[in-house]
Each structure stands twice: as structure tokens, then as C-alpha cells.
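Our consortium's second objective concerns turning raw sequence data into structural hypotheses that experimental partners can test. To show how far this objective has progressed, the report includes one record in full. It was chosen at random from the queue rather than selected for favorable results. The single chain below, 123 residues long, was entered without modification.
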Amino acid sequence: AGWSAFVNMLEYKAVKHGRYFGKIGRFEPTSQICSVCGIKDGPKPLHVRQWTCAGCGTVHDRDDNASRNTLAAGRADRLNASRSAGKTRTKVPAQRVEAGSHPDGHPTVAGIPGLQAGEHVKR
């Protein structure tokens, strides 16, 4: 629950400040895929810290290879997100101090629409 709350806060703050937040699947095999040629070498026990790609012969540090694959997946996701900009992006409402006036000249009213001054919301 704590990790989920942390990720939700990161997502919200990224949107609020106009930044991109990407995440990849929990079971993405980032340490099993060669970051050079893309061949999936298969699962390895955690004590295996280095491995050699059967496809291209590159020697990989397990964590470094996983970080390169994670970065590549995030960049690919961001590229896809920018192509559909406006369709899936979440809009963040302006803060009250940033609210301006309506184009027709009526002032912006802060608060909950439909409530008159002095009314209270029942909980």
C-alpha cells in the first residue's frame, strides 16, 4: 500500500508540474533481455550478477543491463504518449490564485458550483 501511494503521488506531482511520468510493468524481464541486440536470454538466479549474451556476445552486469532496458522502455512509452498528446493526458485545474476571468467578462467565482454563500456541504 505504501509503494502504491508513493507512485500515485509521483504521478500527480508530475502532471501538476507539466512533467512526464512513465512506469513499466512489474514483471517486465529487464534483466533477461540484452540491451544491445534485444535477445531474451531467459531467467537467471539472483546470484548470477554477470552474463554473456548468446546472440551478440556482450558481457552484461545484471543491474546495469536492467537499468538500460528500463530507460529504453520509458523512452518508448514517452514517445508513444507524445504522439497521442491531448487524448490521454490528464488536465489539472488551475489553482485559485491562478484563476482568471471568463472571456465574456464575467469574473471567475471560486468555490463549489451550485452552493450559495453560507450553505454547508453535508457529509
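The partners drew two points from this record. The two ends are 26 Å apart (CA to CA). The mean pLDDT is 78. Both points have been shared with the crystallography group to help prioritize constructs.
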